[in-house]
Each structure stands twice: as structure tokens, then as C-alpha cells.
């Protein structure tokens, strides 16, 4: 289970809407001498924090501002990665191979078929991810209240160990 600390934005009977706080990193990261988390954090900083709806299986009472730990099943993350990255690539290569080896088309037509395969692969992923049962598998779950836990920020050890 992959765990992440989050802050409750709203809570209702369907679950809770949470956002993850920005990663400030340690003082070394902020100076650019640590693991690079501070520099990377500044480059990817968003004006508005993204939110996600998490399931609340225990029906615990939460109010806005509560800190919780949410979790996502490891298999769900691996499955989502394979779906989003490998699916379109396999479709692209499949279309290109069929165009070249089966249909005997030239280079330009094979490239065009590969691009069509990539687009078809992304379309398949979009349709697949909008299915109700599929979305529930990838929904994070509130595991517990944070209760003063510290998030796993980089260590102050310069060796990175």
C-alpha cells in the first residue's frame, strides 16, 4: 500500500475530498544542495493544489483541515501505469506492424498507421478509465488520521542514505 499524507478539503457520505500539501523539502533541498526536491518542487509548483476524492470505509467524521493518511494499492498503481503507458504503445506498434508486414505499405503509410494506432490506444485508455468499476479500483482510501506523523522528506544526511 502506497501511503501519502493529505489534508481534508470537504467530507460527505460518499467519502472525503483531500489535497496533498506541497513538498517544501529540507533546508538543504531549498538551497539546491540536497536531493533536489526543493528545486523540483519550485519547477512543478501549481497555483492551485489538485484534489482527489478518497473513499472513507470507516465512515469517520472529518472536517476541513483535518490531516489524514490516504493509501493506494500497489497493484492499482502498477495497473494504471501499464494501462496509460504500455496500452497506447502496443497499439501504435501493432498498427505499424500490420501496415508494414501484412499490408506491405511503404514507410510513410506505416508511420501514419503507427500514429493512428497511438491515437486509437489513447482513445481506448480514455474509454476504459471512464468505466465505473475501473475508476473505483484506482480510488485512494482514507487509512487513518495523521496524528502528528511526519511526511517522508529527504534526510539531512549529505550522502543521501
Automatic annotation (TrEMBL):
TM segment ranges: 82-102, 108-126
Keywords: Membrane, Transmembrane, Transmembrane helix
Record-linked InterPro entries: RseC, SigmaE_reg_RseC_MucC
Protein name per Swiss-Prot or TrEMBL: Fis family transcriptional regulator
Taxonomic source organism: Abyssibacter profundi
